Amino acid sequence: MGEVARGGCCPPMDLFRSEPMQLVQLIIPIESAHRTVSYLGDLALLQFKDLNADKSPFQRTYATQIKRCGEMARRLRFFKEQMSKAGVSPKYSTTPIDVNIDDLDVKLAEIETELTEMNANGEKLQRSYNELVEYKLVLQKAGEFFHSAQSRALEQQREYESRQLSGESVETPLLQDQVDFLPAHELSGDSKQVKLGFLAGLVPREKSMVFERILFRATRGNVFLRQATVENPVIDPVSGDKIEKNVFVVFYAGEKAKSKILKICDAFGANRYPFAEELGKQAQMIREVSGKLAELKTTIDAGLLHRENLLNTIGAKFEQWDFLVRKEKSIHHTLNMLSLDVTKKCLVAEGWSPVFATKQIQDALHRAAFDSNSQVNAIFQVLHTRELPPTYFRTNKFTSSFQGIIDSYGVAKYQEANPTVYTVVTFPFLFAVMFGDWGHGICLLLAALYFIIREKKLSSQKLDDITEMTFGGRYVILLMALFSIYTGFIYNEFFSVPFEIFGPSAYECRDLSCRYTKPLDWDATTVGLIKVRDTYPFGVDPVWHGSRSELPFLNSLKMKMSILLGVAQMNLGIIMSYFNAKFFRNCVNVWFQFIPQMIFLNSLFGYLSLLIIVKWCTGSQADLYHILIYMFLSPTDELGENQLFPGQKNLQLVLLLLAFVSVPWMLIPKPFILKKQHEARHGAESYTPLESTDESLLVESNHDSHGHEEFEFSEVFVHQLIHTIEFVLGAVSNTASYLRLWALSLAHSELSSVFYEKVLILAWGYNNVIILIVGLIVFIFATVGVLLVMETLSAFLHALRLHWVEFQNKFYEGDGYKFHPFSFSLQDDEE
């Protein structure tokens, strides 16, 4: 359907209708299939259909190749994880890599084996190093226990002997702490020989108190425990985490106590290390451990250097390898969607492509056959089908964000009128009506220009969600800012402050004493104003701001302007439905949808818009609320002082009659006409001749084929009834919905005025630098946080709603599906 552009491979971009699509069939020789799919992926203009939907992934032809590509992708993810841990970032390279996928598979397997061995060896060495570090700490701290205890025991021995020689009567105590510090030594005198065993190690500091308590209870107090704090956290050999630990030495008597202590140490994760009693052996062990630590440190450093070099080598080619593996996997995934013909020598493919891409696809097929040294070229043919084609709009970086706004509501049906053409202008304009302030607009403009100027750098970076969303809509923000500056000039507001930009005010103070002062200093609330010049040439006269009539005047202006804009946009939506009906040759929708809808909407709210314009032009004092209400309640009454032009009463009666007639006009005829068309179509199809052999390639689909479906008149009538009621009620509610333009514009203006007067001006009045700086900071944060962030988001969402609900529901079905061509540039999203 629609005109097909001719005379070039790429016709001019047309956003109003989606690209004409065609269902094509490719018959590709096996030997050139891989290269053909690769070239079509580079072209990105063909959406393949899955011809093997009834088969599981494991039953398809290229399942083995996909499994191999998955294994290669796993290795690459392993490399990326190792590089991330080592702080090595992959280097982006634009030079193409010339490597066979089989060679790459072997190379990746070898690198994985080497890297795995290096990691295992490194972990073993690091664990040994951590154990030696702990061992050295045990030797140092426990050695201090034994050295101090032995010194004290020798002192006690000498004191005991001196007392024996002097003949003093010394009572031997039952328990002496010093005895515990002389393991396996025999004390002189009548003391009993005591032999104690001991264990030394490290225990986590957070568990040390519980560890001591459990030891005491398990052995019934028959142990002696000494602990010393390790100043710096140590790396645990088992977990690899840095943990604060204490060195402990447990003295015990008997094997039974020893077995209990060993179990408790295992339960608390306490690492035990061998320890000698003799001070000489302790010093020798410390020297040996220090030597081993130095050797291990050298070995670990050399291993880390070798591993870093290997990871840098991987990082230099990682992006190229990753792209090649992803490309290979997507090619085989696409080949699995193709079906084998009966000879097992060709693959048959079907898919959607734009009509303009026919020559490009054929060139890619010929090039693939030539590069593959295939003796047979691939066959390209167009299939005739009733299936609804996908929707494809060619967009650029400017229009893509606007198209995304429409697609978020629903993808356009094939060749349906696209609202994006008008949304490019109407969306930022309606936003600006609610956000009208040229000071705030300049701030938005600067933000948009920042993203636009740095778009090349930012597009290649990984951004967070909010920044990425803002960057994607940078051109929407640009137009929103420009339109906000324009409406700000109309409202004459710069951070709520008016300026005489386009000339002097048309009004002056009525009292001569204040006539020549600045407009902002007029005491308009008590003195009043008088018009002395021609009307202010553009926008709102600055004298209105601050006057006692400001709020009534601006309210009336913005409310009436909102109704005019709303009725205009709704009329545009209905006119778009006419172009849709004309394009699809649907005369029923023209006569029984478009015409009665236009009559109904304009008989009521089009007439209201006319009254608003006439009142503005004539300066009449007529009450438009009274006119519109009594147009329904008392249509035959005289208008009196509310009459705006001659013949207004008769015009209202005609419009009221047309509005009432248009409702059954929309409701009744269409279902009967559709039923008659269905019966005529079925009568013609009852005697359809047999298909010729030339039409054997016709593809049937249930997607858009209603030829043999039963026509349910009741369902059609109910649907039309719902549609009619929805339009009639929606005409009222949608018009009222456009009053949000007035409400949000008023809220934005008042908030801006409050921040200016109650923060900035108030701080200025104190004549204090500190208060002024604080006031300025509060004003900036309030302006940015509330007016430039929250108000921007609020106005954006309301403008979005006006387009999605009030505008698009007049003509936009949005029940299509997007064209997703096979493309290597989309591999990241697919992955």
Secondary structure elements and pairings:
Elements: E1 21-29, H1 30-43, E2 47-48, H2 63-86, H3 101-166, H4 177-180, E3 197-204, H5 208-218, E4 223-229, E5 234-235, E6 242-243, E7 245-252, H6 255-267, E8 271-273, H7 279-335, E9 339-340, E10 346-354, H8 358-371, E11 379-383, H9 399-409, H10 420-434, H11 438-453, H12 455-459, H13 465-472, H14 474-491, E12 507-509, E13 529-531, H15 550-583, H16 587-618, H17 624-633, H18 648-667, H19 669-685, H20 713-737, H21 740-764, H22 769-807, H23 827-830
Antiparallel strand pairs: 1-10, 1-11, 2-10, 3-7, 3-8, 4-7, 5-6, 9-10, 12-13
Helix pairs in contact: 1-7, 1-8, 2-3, 2-7, 3-7, 5-6, 10-14, 10-21, 10-22, 11-14, 15-16, 15-20, 15-21, 16-18, 16-20, 19-20, 21-22
Give a brief description.
This is V-type proton ATPase subunit a. With 831 residues, the protein is of the alpha+beta class. The chain has helices at residues 30-43, 63-86, 101-166, 177-180, 208-218, 255-267, 279-335, 358-371, 399-409, 420-434, 438-453, 455-459, 465-472, 474-491, 550-583, 587-618, 624-633, 648-667, 669-685, 713-737, 740-764, 769-807, 827-830; strands at residues 21-29, 47-48, 197-204, 223-229, 234-235, 242-243, 245-252, 271-273, 339-340, 346-354, 379-383, 507-509, 529-531.
